[in-house]
Design goal:
Blueprint (H helix, E strand, L loop, with lengths): L12 H14 L12 H8 L3 H14 L2 E4 L3 E4 L14 H7 L4 E11 L16 E10 L2 E11 L16 H8 L4 E10 L2 H7 L6 E11 L2 E11 L17
Antiparallel strand pairs: 1-2, 3-4, 4-5, 5-8, 6-7, 7-8
C-alpha cells in the first residue's frame, strides 16, 4: 500500500491544457456561463499550436464541461439535470445513520495498465487507471470491500488525490461531475478475498454492487463493492417519470 498518491503527470501538452482548464472549472474558479480564454490566448499561454489547443477543448466539450460556439465563444457549460433509480450511496453517511462509527482502511493503491482485473477486453480502450482496494468498517467491523479503478485520461487530478485517509468515492462525487451511471447488483458467496477482508466464512452470502460512471462518453470510474449480507442493505426510492415512462 502506498502512503502517497502515485506521481503521474499528463503525458502530452493537450492533456495538460485540458487538466488545467478542468481543474479551474471543478474548483469553481470558472463558473457555469463564464467565458474561457480564446484559442489564440491559450496558444500564447502554452506556446503551442492551434491544433493542440483545439484537441484539448474538443475533449472537454465531449465530456459536457464546456460549450463551444463560434459566435459566442467557449463557456463553462451549465450542469445537466440527471437522476438515477438507485442513487450513488454515501457509505459513511449510511453507516453513521445506523448509529455506528465509520472506519476506512486502504489495502492497496497502485497504477494499473489497461486490461486489468474486472475490465476484461474492454480495458484495452480505457487507458491507465489508479486502482484502490479498501475496506469500510462499522464499529471496527468490516462490512464492505471495494475495488475501484479511476481512469486517469478522464480524471487526471485523481493521480494526486490522497486516498490514504479518504475513500475515492466521496472524492469523486465532490470533484468530478458525471452524466450517467450504471449499476449491477447480484447475490454472491464470499470468495477467498472477501472471506479474508470481511472476516466471514467461505461461502457467506454477500451483496455485490458493480458501478460504472461516465462523463459524456468517457468512463470515469468502475467500482466493485462486496457487502456482508448480514450487515448491510441498499435502498432505492423511485417513481414514474413526468412523461409516465
Amino acid at each position: 500500500m502506498h502512503d502517497h498518491a502515485p506521481d503521474v503527470r499528463p503525458a502530452t501538452l493537450h492533456a495538460r491544457i485540458r487538466a488545467e482548464v478542468e481543474a479551474r472549472i471543478l474548483s469553481g474558479e470558472w463558473k457555469p456561463g463564464d467565458r474561457l480564454p480564446t484559442e489564440t490566448e491559450l496558444m500564447a499561454r502554452y506556446g503551442c499550436s492551434r491544433m493542440t489547443v483545439n484537441k484539448a477543448m474538443a475533449s472537454l466539450a465531449a465530456t459536457g464541461l464546456i460549450s463551444r460556439n463560434r459566435r459566442a465563444g467557449t463557456v463553462v457549460a451549465r450542469p445537466r439535470v440527471h437522476s438515477a433509480v438507485l442513487n450513488i450511496p454515501d457509505i459513511r453517511a449510511d453507516i453513521e445513520a445506523r448509529g455506528a462509527v465509520y472506519g476506512y482502511r486502504p489495502l492497496l493503491d497502485e497504477l494499473r495498465p489497461p486490461c486489468c482485473v474486472h475490465l476484461g477486453a474492454e480495458g484495452h480502450h480505457l487507458g491507465q487507471s489508479r486502482f484502490v482496494r479498501s475496506v469500510h468498517l462499522a464499529d471496527d467491523s468490516p462490512v464492505l470491500i471495494e475495488d475501484r479503478h479511476i481512469f486517469l485520461d478522464a480524471v487526471p487530478d485523481a493521480a494526486f488525490a490522497d486516498f490514504h485517509g479518504e475513500p475515492p468515492g466521496p472524492w469523486l462525487l465532490g470533484h468530478v461531475p458525471w452524466t450517467k451511471a450504471e449499476h449491477r447488483i447480484a447475490a454472491i458467496a464470499a470468495d477467498a478475498m472477501a472471506t479474508r477482508a470481511l472476516k466471514v466464512s467461505s461461502g457467506t452470502p454477500c451483496l455485490l454492487v458493480e458501478r460504472r460512471t461516465w462523463r459524456g462518453e468517457e468512463t470515469l470510474t468502475i467500482a466493485r463493492q462486496v457487502f456482508r449480507g448480514d450487515a448491510f442493505d441498499l435502498t432505492a426510492r423511485f417513481g414514474p417519470t413526468p412523461s409516465g415512462g
